[in-house]
Specification:
This protein is an alpha/beta fold. Helices cover 33% and strands 20% of the residues. The chain has 13 helices and 15 strands. The strands form three sheets. An eleven-stranded mixed β-sheet has the order 5-4-6-7-1-8-15-14-9-10-12, with helices on both faces. A two-stranded antiparallel sheet has the order 2-3. Strand 14 and strand 15 form a beta hairpin. It is globular, with a radius of gyration of 19 Å. The mean pLDDT is 96.
């Protein structure tokens, strides 16, 4: 642990149906106010499923009309969230060459890709490329240091945050704008996940369609949005008197090497990832005050993650929250959005409740927080992301006063 720069979280920014600011998102979670409703995925209304869509999103004030035409919706969301995060941090207080950007996205510009098939215009390629978000953010914020994009499906956002931390620790940058973005609400995407049996396609109450760890779950619910954090060398943040939301202290990443889409059934890779993150943070499982679960609402993922958490922490020992019950699943966005949520859990000393849990799957021996938020003491909080492809990523946040 010696000789490494500490990493502070000094800025937060989000765009999601559950909240266009971190504060709105937090209130939605505390109130178990679902952002999910029936959504038409095509103009004809032939593909209609529960989804978490930002129906009133407008990038005006962040992007000019010309810039908006040049950027996929996913990138528009990313720019807005990243700029807000920097504003929350009070700006970037290092030279352009000491700034960096790391973005995570699972699907890139998939809306532009589908819209342009068969009749692409001159901007088709730059709109759909996965690294477009990193370009737009770096150009807007004057970042001439490293600019990277990570695509590891549903772990992309968490990998982006973790790799950004490593960049600061290694001395490659002093400030990194890191996060995730995806806007995958296209008819082809919805049909594909629906036919695969992974996504909720119909239910009696769309608002409660996402039910992680519940025996009545039917799969995940697609969401769109963006979430970014400003990560800063801890000593530099303190020197300038920055408001520090939390510290980022640990990062783990492993691979299941088991199946293209299914997790290892006993959660071995997930457990190893959490153990690695805690070791990196220099802490132990018994010190953890809360777990932000990946909790997608698919049977295979929920059971494997629950087994991993129980094996590491003990059955029903540590408070667990599954935010996707409120937010839906934003794929490459998810880990970054939940990193923001985890930071706010650390800052507020609260574990938000898991919505829509009526009967816990008996195979999931977890202490799920339900009903109302639960107070948690200062201490490390871990956030999990476990993705298609067996990609696992976990990050640990802690109080800045620790």
């Amino acid at each position: 642990m010696t000789g490494r720069h500490g990493v502070a979280v000094t800025g937060l920014g989000v765009r999601s149906a559950a909240g266009a600011t971190p504060e709105e998102l937090w209130e939605s979670l505390l109130d178990c106010r679902s952002a999910i409703s029936l959504h038409p995925f095509d103009d004809e209304g032939s593909v209609v499923h529960p989804a978490s869509a930002m129906t009133r999103f407008d990038p005006a004030g962040y992007l000019s009309p010309k810039e908006t035409r040049r950027a996929d919706r996913s990138v528009q969301l990313a720019v807005c969230a990243a700029v807000d995060a920097v504003a929350d941090a009070g700006g970037l207080h290092v030279a352009p060459g000491r700034r960096a950007v790391v973005t995570g996205t699972g699907y890139g510009g998939v809306i532009s890709q589908e819209d342009g098939i068969g009749h692409p215009d001159v901007l088709y390629a730059p709109r759909l490329m996965h690294n477009a978000g990193a370009y737009w953010i770096s150009a807007r914020l004057g970042v001439t240091g490293p600019s990277l994009t990570i695509s590891t499906a549903c772990a992309s956002g968490t990998h982006a945050v973790g790799e950004a931390m490593q960049m600061i620790r290694a001395g490659g940058a002093d400030v990194v704008v890191a996060g995730g973005h995806d806007s995958p609400l296209t008819p082809t995407t919805a049909l594909a996940f629906g036919r695969a049996g992974a996504m909720v396609t119909e239910c009696e109450d769309p608002a409660s369609a996402s039910r992680p760890f519940d025996v009545g779950r039917r799969g995940f619910v697609l969401a769109e949005g963006a979430a970014f954090l400003v990560l800063e060398r801890l000593d530099l943040a303190r020197a300038r008197g920055a408001r520090i939301h939390a510290t980022l202290t640990g990062y783990g990443r492993t691979s299941d090497a088991h199946h293209l889409t299914a997790p290892h059934p006993d959660g071995a890779g997930a457990r190893a990832c959490m153990e690695q993150a805690l070791a990196d943070a220099g802490t132990s499982a018994d010190a953890v005050t809360h777990v932000n679960a990946h909790g997608t609402g698919t049977e295979l993922n929920d059971v494997a993650e629950a087994r991993a958490i129980s094996a590491l922490f003990g059955p029903r020992v540590v408070p667990v929250t599954a935010p996707k019950a409120v937010t839906g699943h934003g794929l490459g966005l998810a880990g970054a959005l939940e990193a923001v949520i985890t930071v706010m859990s650390v800052r507020e000393g609260l574990a938000p409740p898991t919505a829509h849990l009526t009967r816990l799957d008996p195979r999931c021996e977890l202490d799920l927080v339900t009903g109302e938020a639960r107070k948690i003491p200062d201490g490390p909080v871990i956030s999990n992301s476990f993705a298609f492809g067996g990609h696992n990523a976990c990050v640990v946040f802690d109080s800045p006063h620790g």
